[in-house]
Amino acid sequence: MKILVTGGTVFVSRYAAEYFIARGHDVFVLNRGSKPQPAGATPVIADRNDLRNLLKRHYFDAVLDVTAYNANDVNNLLDALGDFGKYVLISSSAVYPEWAAQPFTENTATGINKFWGDYGLGKIDAERALSSRVPDAYTVRPPYIYGEYNNVYREAFMFDCATRDLPAYIPADESFKLQFIHVEDVCRFAEVLITTTPEQRVYNIGTAPVSGIEWVRACYAAAGKAPRVYTVGNDVEQRSYFPFYAYSYALDCSAAYKLSPPTIELTDGLKRAYAQYCALGYEIKRKDYLQFIKENLQVYE
């Protein structure tokens, strides 16, 4: 197939480009050309909101839109495309308001989430723009995505702590849960949508939620370590020392499981992520968690 992947140079879009190239597809990547291109892809160098006629002459069997963050992103790409087959939008579970009944289903009404704010609202607008113009398009709503090329300072933060033999600081709330999916399982599910034609158009995807301490221990275990763990009270802003909001949620992923259940367990996925972390094969956007811990949380030891 001839597939257009928006992005193609960072995390999910980069992994997706390589995933479909490895399966023998003719992959085009749309980006501004500021980073190295995936080997084997045909780059289309442009801003997705200023494409002119660069895409009109192509027919794409599938468009995998990883980088749409609002309605303009979707509308401008649709205006620039010629004919195409399937369209798959990678959206986000941030479209569900935090106060709605859990687990969130695909039928849960979308709305502002106080933890995700404008990011979630932008994704809602992107979904609506797409469904209004391409009613048979597919929308995928993942929780936290992790794995190779993850440039967000999540598992890499724990790897930094583990490799330096530093303790782990976690929220004291034992009920705090996190839900993940490995980047390869995101791509695998997108492949199912591209190669088949399921009737349902919106899907939650993800593995079973885990506690914060389970995630921390799995990250350290990937590095061959066991953490010294200190819990931090609610009087300390959680995002100042821990890479997730103080927000537990769960997605009902039963519809997606019927099509293609995730294949990568958290422990295995983190081992793969750690191997690439050690190889220094990608850029990580580090935050100042370690500095905050050094200056404010030594008392917990």
Description:
α1 crosses α5, α4 crosses α6 and α6 packs across α8. The protein is globular, with a radius of gyration of 20 Å. It has nine helices and 13 strands. The protein has 301 residues and is an alpha/beta fold.
Task: Looking at this protein, list some descriptive labels.
single chain; 301 residues; 33% helix; seven-stranded parallel beta sheet; alpha/beta; 13 strands; two-stranded parallel sheet
Write the SSE topology.
Elements: E1 2-6, H1 11-22, E2 26-31, E3 42-45, E4 60-65, H2 71-80, E5 84-90, H3 117-133, E6 138-141, E7 144-146, H4 155-163, E8 168-171, E9 177-178, E10 180-182, H5 183-195, E11 202-204, E12 210-211, H6 212-222, E13 229-232, H7 254-259, H8 266-279, H9 289-296
Parallel strand pairs: 1-2, 1-4, 2-3, 4-5, 5-6, 6-11, 7-10, 8-13
Antiparallel strand pairs: 9-12
The beta-strand count equals 13
Q: Work out the radius of gyration.
A: 20 Å
Structural class: alpha/beta
Mean pLDDT: 96
Strand order, largest beta sheet: 3-2-1-4-5-6-11
Relative helix content:
25-40%
Report the portion of residues in β strands: 15-25%
From the spread of the alpha carbons, the general shape counts as globular
Task: Please work out how many helical segments DSSP would assign.
Answer: 9
Q: Unreliable segments (pLDDT under 50, ≥5 consecutive)?
A: none
Distance between the termini: 56 Å
Order of helices and strands: EHEEEHEHEEHEEEHEEHEHHH
Largest sheet: 7 strands, parallel
